Amino acid sequence: MFRIYCPYCGELREEEEFHPKGPAHLARPADPDNCTDEQWGDFLYFRDNPRGLHNELWVHALGCRKFFNVTRDTQTYLIKGSYRLGESPDQARTSGDQA
Fold this sequence. Notes:
Oligomer: single chain
Largest sheet: 4 strands, antiparallel
Number of helices: 1
Shape: elongated
CATH class: Alpha Beta
Number of strands: 6
CATH topology: Folate-binding fold
């Protein structure tokens, strides 16, 4: 089990309070009405499964219920930091950082 820092609550909490929701920073198609079925299916269902550092979307389901991003190493499970939606990964905070 690991602990995750919620950038909205400002607290380091147990993993059970959070749920992963997939990769962060996914760009929706600019004009979904004109996508082919194949393009739309690729957007909805096909994701990379990188080894190493990866930005993920998480929700603090049993806390503030807000979505945020986490930078995590998928090989070691080590969390490098978390940051609010709209921020960039270089603004990631850990429990010792100031919000």
